[in-house]
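Hi Y.,

Following your request, here is the sequence exactly as I used it, all 403 residues.
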Amino acid sequence: MSADRKVPEIRFKGFSGGWKNSELHELALFNPKNELPESFNYVDLESVKGTSLIGYRVEIKNKAPSRAQRLAQKGDVFYQTVRPYQKNNYLFNEDGDDYVFSTGYAQLRPYCDGHFLLNLVQRDPFVKQVLDNCTGTSYPAINAFVLATLEVSNPEIEAEQTQIGNYFQKLDTLINQHQKKHDKLCNIKKAMLEKMFPKQGETIPEIRFRKFSGEWKSDILESVVSFYKGKNLPKSSIQDDGVFPCIHYGELFTKYSEVIEVVTSRTNQNDNFFSISNDVLMPTSDVTPKGLVKSCCIKQSGVVLGGDILIIRPEDKNVIDGAFLSRFIRSREQQVLQNVTGTTVFHLYASSIEKLDIVFPFIEEQNAISNYFQKLDNLINQHQQQITKLNNIKQACLSKMFV
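Below is the corresponding structure, written out as tokens. Let me know if you'd prefer a different format.
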């Protein structure tokens, strides 16, 4: 067997022999020409995320953007030629004949199995090959004619292509199912944050558990909490074998959700500020007015808290539950973000939110609300874990089932 006739590491039973090398245009017709309908659903570069179509907008032909040129046919693969490292590529599987894609995509009408082709071009080695042939730096892009000449390996037997394509189609279906459930739960959570906490200036929420009634107590934040600040904890001081559990402020953006049950980072620094259960933590640096308010309640005492962490400590945990307070602050996101300071790097200090108007019910209702959102968070996290697990399986298979 010649050196260029390679075989994949993992293969379905019944198939043998080396894969052949082909230029991409041998596997698909590039940018077929079609007459556009008078009105259509326009898919631009923001409308595909991963391998899913997440939106489109209706356009009239004579008023549509000039980039609206690629009339989709079921089974077409659309490859993002601008910033291809994003890997936002889509196998068109809609029944309609009125979807038009931007010229920011190359349109590939497969001669082979479409799912096989989609996953072939999703692989990191292929993306690297594409990037090596891109022009531009901020917005690297590849010309469709160059894309068509890139070399790929593929099995000669169509049945093997189909079986590989079917396998990845099933994986993608599972990923999309979990993603849809995840997104639905996130939307429910967002809606309930708006409805289970009173609107600004009001003292009764729109939605409430049956056994609770009456107005919530109104106050300002500094009347029921104390404010502290973590001490400097360089990222370099975080060690796997450290003595004390710790949180660096950056982890509040990347690692933790509304309730912190377990802390995994550790440090040997013992002269910093320590948490107590029921503290609410907020990052004070790199806050963005366009982003989310990242408030978290920590349930673990004795955690070293790094600099640029604002600690909001309820004076009496029988009056204010930290998990409730954290979510209440998130429900007042726009009000909180109005008080950030800075021009390029934004900061949030105790003085920014100490006068925040808050309303809160008796502790029993606070606990019921906190428990409801914790259950929602657990379901969201379960789906996210499954998405991560399936994506890891997919990436491993992409590297082992292709050449």
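The two ends are 15 Å apart (CA to CA).

Thanks again,
Q.
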